[in-house]
Design brief:
Helices cover 29% and strands 35% of the residues. It has two helices and four strands.
């Protein structure tokens, strides 16, 4: 299992979701991706994208004005 971090600070919608989509495309099922963002919209956008695409958000938290989401890559469709 691979764990990666994706820096999406200072990016506004829809760029964080696009960056997540691009990075997940290179990962394997079971891999984890931690996404660090400053746009609060990601708290709705990334979980919605994960539900549609078969991935799972395992953690969401806020720290010092940043939003950190951890997701687990699901099986390819």
């Amino acid at each position: 299992m691979t764990r990666e971090v994706l820096d999406c600070r200072r990016l506004l919608c829809p760029m964080p979701v696009i960056r997540v989509q691009d990075r997940v495309a290179g990962l394997q099922p079971g891999d984890e991706l931690e996404v660090v963002c400053t746009d609060p919209g990601v708290l709705q956008d990334i979980p919605a994208w994960c539900r549609i695409n078969g991935h799972r958000v395992t953690e969401m938290r806020e720290a010092r004005g940043e939003y950190i989401l951890r997701l687990r890559v699901g099986e390819a469709e």
